[in-house]
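As a warm-up, study this chain.
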Amino acid sequence: MKKILFTGFTLALFLFAGVLHAQRPDSRNPRYVDSYGLNFGFRAGAFFGFHDISRNLDSDIYNSLTNFNFALYRIFPLSGSLFFQSELNFMIIQGIEGKGSVYTGTSGMYVNVSNKISYSSIDIPLLLKYCFLGGPEQLGFLGGLHLSLTPGAIDAEGINLASAEYSQGKWSYDSNIATFGFTAGLFAGIPAGQRRLTGDIRLIYDVNDLTIKEGGNTLRILKRRGLAVTAGFEF
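Now compare it with the structure written out below.
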């Protein structure tokens, strides 16, 4: 319930900012972002993870999943070259998958392991952007903090996260309410009529672990880290 309320409150604030933006004349023209204050944007792309596994899970090799993400954001100019940007970033089905072999006492032999841990999240980055190439064309770097909410469950297939052992079946676990970390990268933009086409590449680095709650205990699973490559437009 806390996750749902917090996510709903964040969305409401974002929509309220959109209403204020719609009342500002000429703010739709990206050429006048310095004069009129704020722009709205959309971007989408891929996230290439390289997660840090927090537990000794039953698998020889783990690979991070490549997932789809999309974001809505607003830009608030602070000076001629410095901007503040707030975002709602939707990360779809991220996590890890593993293959290997484990010894089972029941069969007295090694069996192949194929397991997967996946979840989706809503990230809220709060970023500063410095544009060293200004005007209609933009080029610069961005950096800041992000909060990541996991509104749904963490799904596990072929692995019991409570015991960290291989097991046939599927499980769903409640997660901690949030993780947080750092975001840094580069961005670029070119004018396209009344809009601006944009692209960025950014490092996403969580500081604390994604955890689950099981039997009254909080168990660490992984730290999310990865590279996001996206493209979009502003208007």
